[in-house]
Design brief:
2 domains, globular, Thiol Ester Dehydrase, Chain A, 14-stranded antiparallel beta sheet, single chain, mainly beta, 15% helix, 16 strands, 309 residues
């Protein structure tokens, strides 16, 4: 095979994403499909609407949201497996992300260069390492495990709203004033146990969410990284409720009201950057189930002060 060079128009034939969800400007992959490099810049008044991916840091600077940077890395690696999966009429789906570490959040106008390297394949899954940099600074490192699924099977998954909407207290919006409403992943606090420092929140993924149209046009799903985003929001809200200061470590789950697990998150570390959270690392994200628009979710976070250093 020849080397691959695709701009965002060419990527539309390779990725099922559309609109603002098609993050990348350009991607290159070697002939062996073992290495890929992506380049992405979000401009002011971005013509592709990708300012949806931004939040503000503690200084008020507009910067990438951490979960969406992880999605950018996952998209960078898809080109390494696309052709193999296409032969089976499958698209790439992510079952696990591990060893996630953030160092810097790039802002508007900064080019993010993503690197994906195929590490190994086993039992129908492909594992690739990823790394992002901007202006010579390391942004993010993570390991991604990808499998395959048939789009028609994804589209056939039914929506699963709450059987009965859980009672709870609306989340204080001031906790999340640093990011737009569509990047907020919890609606209400259902329970909070101070002894165990465990909080449970609820969230309904709106059918009107701006990411619905582009992920995917024929089979709308909540991005896995946005599930993780909901866990991060629940952990940050728990930190405020239980009066912790400084960085925290959280163990999180997303469940349906039937008890079925949707996502398991281990050792999520969130720092405090001038009163605004920043994800520092996460040991593992294990995705168990897809989420459709109107689905109801219960997000559980158990938190503790992060170890020093």
């Amino acid at each position: 095979m020849p080397d691959l060079n695709l701009d965002h128009h060419g990527l539309q034939a390779w990725l099922p994403h559309r609109g603002a969800n098609l993050f990348i400007d350009h991607v290159w992959a070697n002939a062996e499909r073992t290495r890929a490099t992506s380049r992405t810049t979000i401009a002011v008044n971005d013509p592709r609407g990708r300012e949806l991916l931004l939040r503000r840091d503690g200084a008020g600077r507009r910067c990438w949201s951490e979960p969406l940077l992880l999605e950018l890395m996952a998209l960078s690696g898809i080109v390494l497996v696309h052709e193999k999966l296409a032969l089976m009429n499958q698209v790439s789906v992510f079952s696990m992300v591990s060893r996630v570490a953030y160092h810097y959040l790039p802002g508007v106008g900064e080019e993010v260069v993503g690197h994906a390297t195929l590490e190994r394949s086993r039992s129908g899954f492909t594992i690739f390492s990823t790394r992002a940099e901007a202006a010579g600074r390391t942004v993010l490192e993570a390991e991604v495990m990808s499998g395959g699924a048939i789009m028609a099977d994804i589209a056939g998954q039914p929506a699963r709203p709450f059987n009965a909407t859980p009672s709870g207290t609306p989340v204080d919006p001031s906790l999340f004033a640093w990011k737009p409403a569509h990047l907020r992943g919890i609606d209400s606090v259902v329970s909070a146990d101070a002894a165990s420092r465990t909080m449970v929140c609820s969230y309904v993924y709106p059918a009107t969410h701006p990411f619905v149209a582009g992920h995917f046009p024929d089979a709308p799903l909540m991005m896995g990284v946005m599930q993780w985003n909901a866990c991060c929001d629940c952990a940050w809200a728990a930190r405020a409720r239980f009066g912790l200061r400084g960085a925290i470590t959280a163990q999180c789950r997303i469940l349906r009201d039937s008890g079925k697990e949707v996502l398991d998150v281990r050792e999520l570390v969130i720092g405090d950057a001038d009163g605004v959270p920043m994800i520092l690392s996460t040991k593992r994200l294990a995705f168990r189930d897809v989420v459709r628009p109107t689905d109801g979710l219960l997000i559980e976070a158990t938190i503790a002060p992060a170890p020093a250093g």
